[in-house]
Specification:
Layout (H helix, E strand, L loop, with lengths): L9 E5 L11 H7 L6 E5 L12 E6 L7 H8 L3 E9 L6 H4 L2
Parallel strand pairs: 1-2, 3-4
Length: 100
């Protein structure tokens, strides 16, 4: 099937445990950008998520628990569509994320 026939979505998953988390404000940003119809926020742990195979175009990992990053990436990679991306934030500034 063509790329255009697949529904687009923006899924934000955050456990909201970080002292200065901003993820809970993502819905307002999506609304301001006219993207709220694509947006879903889940307060939870991404490690516990079971993503469908080849269901994600871009998986942005923004977390500092690098000790489990290798395990997460190995399991989540099958959910990234062919030609998609797995992007990791803080790989330069966070030692734990760099270690994986």
């Amino acid at each position: 099937d063509s790329y255009q026939s697949r529904p687009s979505s923006l899924l934000c998953i955050d456990n909201c445990a970080h002292q200065k988390e901003t993820a809970t404000g993502a819905a307002a940003v999506a609304q301001n950008l006219g993207l709220s119809q694509y947006f879903e926020f889940i307060a939870g742990d991404a490690y516990d998520m079971q993503f469908d195979a080849e269901s994600i175009d871009l998986l942005w990992c923004d977390f500092g628990v690098g000790a489990r990053m290798r395990e997460f990436a190995g399991g989540a990679w099958k959910s990234v569509r062919p030609g998609g991306f797995l992007v990791c934030h803080s790989t330069l500034t966070n030692q734990g994320t760099r270690d994986w």
